[in-house]
Design goal:
With about 260 residues, this protein is an alpha/beta fold. The chain has ten helices and eleven strands.
């Protein structure tokens, strides 16, 4: 079975390379053309098997009106998640959700964040801990049917990339102690202005790895689970927001009216 998954991984990269190659002339000819990712989509069909992790896919981005490669990435994911619900949450809706459901401490910390990626880092942990489901970055896609990746009795599936856990894919049931700990670390980082090297340390994978530490968790390697960048790249993801990627944000500008240590 892993061999078949690896083959799907490779084929998706080949398909993605073709999509990106064709997308450059497409968007040159049609510079204003965008495709809309729906805010909500029901499962195409429901299985009889009960899952501990709610069968909901969560994604967010600065806009759901996207370039052709990002939209094809979305379609590829939907093809492999036909029995899952889909929910896209906008920047504005993320804030409203946090304000409605989080404690004042978490909400106040969230509102200190200025970068969209940092906001998404905290929101993904909170929404998974609150509702449960599977979070994927907008440029990420699974390489095998999601219901085969997430088993019915799984309470969590973390993503291992080389020797560290990543946060671009997280599957969890609600009230996960590792996610709760990660949320507390982020809030403390914000309150104590522990920005470190930037987004990665303030709210990103560094936090998740600190939260898990040496504890035993259920994880899968990214090659047989979920990968990034097959269909899209920074240009296509931020086609209407040049230099919008978190890597371009100076660490001293990550918090409102705060100075980095």
């Amino acid at each position: 079975m892993p061999l078949m998954i690896i083959l799907t991984n490779r084929l998706s990269k080949i398909l993605g390379a073709i999509v990106k190659t064709l997308a450059y002339p497409f968007h040159f000819i049609f510079p204003k053309k965008r495709f809309t990712i729906p805010k909500e989509k029901k499962a195409f069909f429901k299985t009889q098997t009960s899952y501990t992790i709610p069968k909901i896919i969560w994604q967010t981005n600065y806009t759901n009106n996207v370039s052709l490669p990002v939209y094809i990435n979305y379609l590829f994911n939907r093809l492999l998640t036909l029995d899952w619900e889909y929910r896209y949450v906008s920047t504005e809706d993320r804030l409203e959700f946090i304000k409605a459901h989080a404690s004042d401490q978490i909400s106040n910390a969230y509102e200190q964040l200025t970068d969209g990626a940092s906001q998404a880092d905290l929101w993904r942990l909170f929404v998974l801990n609150y509702y449960g489901g599977v979070y994927m970055d907008i440029d990420a896609h699974v390489v095998w049917p999601l219901s085969k990746i997430v088993k019915p009795d799984d309470k969590e599936v973390f993503l291992m990339t080389k020797h560290n856990y990543s946060n671009y894919f997280i599957a969890s049931s609600k009230s996960n102690p590792h996610l709760e700990k990660a949320i507390k670390i982020i809030v403390d980082n914000i309150e104590q202005k522990n920005i470190g090297s930037g987004v990665y340390d303030l709210t990103g994978p560094t936090v998740l790895n600190r939260a898990i530490g040496d504890e035993t968790v259920n994880y899968r390697h990214n090659r047989i689970t979920c990968i990034q960048g097959s269909f899209t790249n920074e240009y296509f993801q931020y086609i209407d927001k040049p230099r919008g990627k978190w890597t371009h944000t100076k660490k001293e500008n990550l918090l409102k009216n705060k100075e980095a240590n």
